[in-house]
Known about the structure:
CATH class of chain A: Mainly Alpha
CATH topology of chain A: 3 helical TM bundles of succinate and fumarate reductases
Radius of gyration of chain A: 17 Å
Structural class of chain A: mainly alpha
Number of domains of chain B: 1
CATH superfamily of chain A: Fumarate reductase/succinate dehydrogenase, transmembrane subunit
Order of helices and strands of chain A: HHHHH
Largest interface: A-B, 35 and 37 residues
Oligomer: heterodimer
Number of strands of chain B: 0
Helix content of chain A: over 70%
Helix content of chain B: over 70%
Mean pLDDT of chain B: 85
Mean pLDDT of chain A: 86
Amino acid sequence: MKAEAATAHKGGMWAWLFQRITAVLIIICLAIHLILTHILNIGDLDYSNVANRLAHASVIAVDIILLAAGIYHALNGLRMVLLDYWFGPRKRAIALNVALWVVGLAAMGYGTWALWPWIS
Amino acid sequence: MWAWLLFRASGLLLVLYLFAHIVITSLGHFGGVGESNAYTQMMEFFEHPVAIVLDLLLVAVVLYHAFNGVRVILMDFGVGIQRHKIVFWTCMVVTVICFAFFAYVAIDHLVNNAGGGS
């Protein structure tokens, strides 16, 4: 393990770690998601067919993991890009962090709401 | 440098796609049953051959980002740094093999389902 890969990372050690954990989660869950939606269960693309698909607890579990891991990975990735440009200085970086957390939590809330009929 | 640039570009594209995907797949909540459901109407567009080709392009972007990402993680852990070019091209070969599989599925779908339906 190259310790400097984590500690010298401009986004911070925890962001570095979570970016990699979510990456692995997304690779696994996205593979399942794509196989279920495009290969095993191609059926008609209409609301009732997709709703039946989501009725399986395992499908919902995979989708919720993808939702959370995807939003974190996407917004942290966006943050890493933006920190290289205008958001480098500390105050702007903090403002960016706050803004991205608000967007991320809102997206997570919205996505959970959209899946709620199959979660509850 | 090109691997890095493509990684960023594909990442930014996927951020946009993710949020569009969340919004579009949540449309089922907004009114209508059967054929008049907002989600069902939206999905009719995604059955169009042009949409399937765009989907396949999306698969290419996802696979590149995924396997270049695997390479980045390997580099972080110091795996294969001495042979980084071999690691990169191995990842690209895996990307192409996975893409070929999805291309087969998409082309099969286009050929056998021309004119809509499932």
